[in-house]
Design goal:
The protein is α/β, with parallel strands linked by helices. The protein has a domain of 177 residues: P-loop containing nucleotide triphosphate hydrolases (Rossmann fold, 3-Layer(aba) Sandwich). The chain has 10 helices and 14 strands. It has a 6-stranded mixed β-sheet, with helices on both faces. It has a 5-stranded antiparallel β-sheet with strand order 2-1-4-5-6, covered by helices on one side. A hairpin with a 2-residue loop joins strand 4 and strand 5. Helix 9 packs parallel to helix 10. The model has no long low-confidence stretch (mean pLDDT 94). The protein binds adenosine-5'-diphosphate and magnesium ion.
Length: 363
């Protein structure tokens, strides 16, 4: 399968990266530097360029350098024989994406054009944290499986919000409630269907991945835990029946916004029972499943962005990660404070960079 390669990356007033321009290698790119120098910012810039979103904040206004009015990232992607220039201009909370100088039809289309998969230390929340993390995983993957997901999700969230507003402002007999509930049902069932598919694709791959790196004899089982009733009629009824409760609670209690991806180890829910090491193995298994599903759906190897690889010097985990990376036939951008710990790649397949006070230079 052909890899997606980011050949060059440039930033302008992006966080502390005032003006960076780097030429990247097609396989391993190692960015090292002390804490607080801009390593994560650089990976974030690559992620924003590829998807128009950040992996560490939902507030785009945070991305511009302090005091700057406008900011931006731009870069050149190669996909097989094809090249394209992508850029994202940022002004406050607004963003302007471009592909080869033209505005894409929609942000949704832009977001799945250049697949990237991120690993960062906070990602352990996929296994240990709240269900929102696992919904995001299903949605990232679902967006590649079904290009309509992002539109459906937005329509669904809007319908849930409007229904809630109607309930709270105009009460449980508000005249517009049935209309909003009809929209919640239509979009909610579509979201649930795509999430179910995402879970079906991710599950077996993650389970097999865990069998290779996890605790022998303790199988991981991954299942979709949907919160949408199975069909239109029962969904409509459930919404109607929960109006009083939802109004009192200030939140909708029925629907796929409460979905989860259930992770069990030897029959017990991983969250709350698994060890630190098991959580890490689960996360690695889920992330490698994400890469495989995205690769298959898009027909291209995604770029991997790994943040702070040696932040915890857990030898077993690092070894599993390196074995996994060694097998990845695509481009990798990774950051570390300890380049000597990073044993991936050969002299030919590896490019090293130094990140210092917002500047990035080959080393
Ligand atoms: N919007 C911003 N404008 C200017 N500097 C910023 C902005 N956001 C973060 N920074 C700075 O970026 C630095 C942290 O960069 P980061 O990439 O997280 O470091 P690390 O190399 O440890 O990964 C800090 O010095 C922080 O003050
Ligand atoms: Mg960092």
């Amino acid at each position: 399968m052909r890899p997606l390669v980011l050949e060059s990356l440039a930033t302008f007033a992006f966080r502390n990266l005032v003006e960076v321009s780097v030429t990247l290698g097609p396989s391993f790119n190692v960015f090292s530097g002390e804490n607080g120098q801009g390593k994560t910012n650089l990976l974030e810039a690559a992620y924003v360029l590829a998807t128009s979103k950040s992996f560490r904040t939902s507030k785009l206004a945070e991305l511009g350098a302090h005091g700057a009015d406008v900011a931006g990232v731009r870069g050149k992607f190669r996909e097989g024989p094809d090249y394209r220039e992508q850029s994202i201009g940022l002004r406050g909370a607004a963003r302007a994406p471009k592909v080869d100088g033209k505005r894409p039809k929609s942000l949704f289309e832009y977001a799945v054009r250049s697949p990237v998969v991120v690993f960062h230390p906070a990602e352990v929340a996929l296994s240990m944290g709240p269900s929102a993390e696992r919904r995001k995983l299903m949605d990232r993957v679902g967006a590649y499986l079904s290009p309509g997901l992002l539109v459906e999700l937005e329509s669904y969230r809007r319908a849930v919000r409007e229904r809630q507003r109607a309930l709270e402002v105009r009460g449980v007999s508000a005249r517009d409630l049935p209309d909003w509930e009809a929209l919640v049902v239509t979009h909610g069932l579509r979201v649930a269907e795509i999430r179910q598919r995402a879970a079906t694709e991710l599950g077996p791959r993650a389970e097999q991945g865990f069998a290779r790196i996890g605790t022998p004899g303790l199988p991981l089982v991954v299942t979709y835990l949907g919160h949408a009733p199975a069909d239109e009629a029962s969904f409509r009824r459930a919404l109607e029946e929960s109006r009083v409760k939802d109004r009192a609670r200030g939140a909708a209690t029925v629907g796929p916004h409460r979905d989860d991806l259930r992770l069990t180890l030897g029959g017990h829910v991983a969250k709350g029972t698994a060890s630190q090491g098991q959580h890490r193995a689960i996360v690695l298994a889920l992330k490698s499943a994400e890469i495989e599903v995205v690769s298959d759906a898009r027909g291209v190897r995604p770029i991997l962005l790994l943040d702070d690889v040696s932040s915890e010097l857990d030898a077993a985990r690092t070894e599993a990660l390196f074995r996994f990376l060694g097998a990845h036939e695509g481009q990798v951008l990774l950051t570390t404070t300890r380049p000597e710990m990073i044993t991936v790649g050969t002299a030919e397949s590896r490019k090293d960079f130094r990140v210092e006070s917002g500047s990035v230079t080959p080393s």
